[in-house]
């Protein structure tokens, strides 16, 4: 609890209707996969979503641009598809195309904001994008400075967010990062309290399970036991969201093709949607 907290501006931005969720963890933890699927879920509920991509890899931004470029082609194909469906019984394809176009072709519903971490200002983004219901922030995978401390810009972003989520893959090596993150949250909270600075941010972990390793009733029991054990250990710092994310899920990861789990009507996708719906609802409950 004696780790040094770097100096930064701890004055939180003004509370607004917009909910700010920041995803923080190392590469391949599932944070970008989560953000893009969560954005799809929120859009389907009629919410306006702004994705802020601060990761130099720009996976979220690439997803958005590729999807936007595909929309025009989808619209052009729709007329032909409708006529063919009358003879080939492909009404399911028409429905899927229509849903995809209506969800992703609304510029006021989803937008992407690319920036570097050092140049980013959440206050500026909120003032220039006031009409969004949610701002989802994907930060760089490298959280730490050369002296093994959380970067000051990231600490500031945590303080300004409504919810910070740390995806944690339930692998032995991955779970070793949890105590470090838990200690950081405890130190940050303690430091702010010592300065009489209110911290309204909620910190949560999101346990991510490889679906192939947790099959059947035994797999479900193991998932439940892992969540309970994690919650007991980190209940005061980064308690887990009660619904886990089935990492990559039963539906093959299509993020590189600009497709979320909500882009398909297959049996596998429907199963993945049910799993992720539970995660999304837990997050919404946490914010309320």
Describe this structure as you would to a colleague.
The relative contact order is 0.18. The chain is of the alpha/beta class and 288 residues long. The protein is globular and about 65 Å long. The protein has a seven-stranded parallel sheet, with helices on both faces. The protein has helices at residues 31-44, 59-88, 91-104, 122-128, 152-160, 172-175, 177-194, 216-234, 267-287; strands at 19-23, 49-53, 110-114, 134-138, 163-169, 202-210, 245-247. Helix 2 runs antiparallel to helix 3. Helix 8 (216-234) links the parallel strand 6 and strand 7 (245-247). The protein starts with 18 loop residues before the first strand and ends with a helix. The protein is built from nine helices and seven strands, in the order E-H-E-H-H-E-H-E-H-E-H-H-E-H-E-H. The chain has one domain (19-287): P-loop containing nucleotide triphosphate hydrolases (Rossmann fold, 3-Layer(aba) Sandwich).
Tag the structure with descriptive keywords.
disordered N terminus; 7-stranded parallel beta sheet; alpha/beta; 9 helices; 288 residues; globular; 7 strands; Rossmann fold
Strand coverage percent: 5-15%
Q: What assembly state would you assign to the polypeptide chains in this entry? A: single chain
Looking at the structure, the CATH topology is Rossmann fold
User: What structural class do the secondary elements suggest?
Assistant: alpha/beta
Based on DSSP secondary structure assignment, what is the total number of beta strands?
7
Put simply, the count of helices is: 9
Uncertain runs: 1-16, 103-108
The whole-number mean of residue pLDDT values reads: 77
Rg computed from alpha carbons, rounded to a whole number of angstroms: 20 Å
For CATH, the homologous superfamily is named as: P-loop containing nucleotide triphosphate hydrolases
Give helix % range.
Answer: 40-55%
Q: Helix-strand pattern, N to C?
A: EHEHHEHEHEHHEHEH
């Amino acid at each position: 609890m004696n780790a040094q907290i770097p100096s930064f501006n701890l004055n939180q931005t003004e509370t607004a209707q917009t909910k700010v969720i920041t995803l923080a963890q190392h590469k391949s933890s599932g944070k970008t996969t989560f953000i893009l699927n969560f954005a799809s879920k929120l859009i389907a509920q009629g919410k306006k979503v702004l994705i802020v991509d601060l990761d130099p890899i720009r996976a979220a931004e690439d997803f958005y641009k590729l999807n936007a470029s595909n929309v025009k082609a989808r619209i052009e194909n729709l007329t032909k598809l409708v006529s063919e469906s009358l003879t080939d019984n492909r009404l399911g394809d028409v429905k899927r195309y229509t849903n995809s176009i209506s969800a992703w072709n609304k510029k006021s519903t989803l937008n992407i904001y690319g920036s570097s971490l050092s140049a980013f200002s959440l206050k500026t983004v909120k003032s220039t994008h006031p009409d969004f219901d949610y701002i989802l922030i994907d930060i760089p995978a490298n959280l730490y400075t050369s002296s093994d401390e959380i970067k000051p810009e990231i600490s500031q972003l945590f303080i300004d967010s409504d919810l910070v989520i740390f995806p944690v893959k339930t692998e032995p090596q991955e779970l070793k990062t949890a105590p470090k993150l838990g200690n950081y949250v405890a130190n940050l909270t303690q430091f702010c309290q010592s300065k009489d600075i209110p911290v309204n941010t909620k910190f949560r972990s999101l346990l991510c399970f490889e679906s192939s390793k947790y099959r059947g009733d035994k797999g479900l029991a193991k998932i439940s036991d892992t969540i309970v054990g994690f919650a007991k250990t980190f209940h005061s710092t980064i308690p887990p969201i009660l619904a886990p994310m089935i990492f990559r899920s039963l539906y093959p990861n299509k993020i590189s093709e600009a497709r979320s789990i909500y882009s398909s009507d297959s049996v596998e996708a429907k199963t993945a949607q049910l799993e992720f719906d539970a995660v999304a609802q837990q997050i919404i409950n946490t914010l309320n």
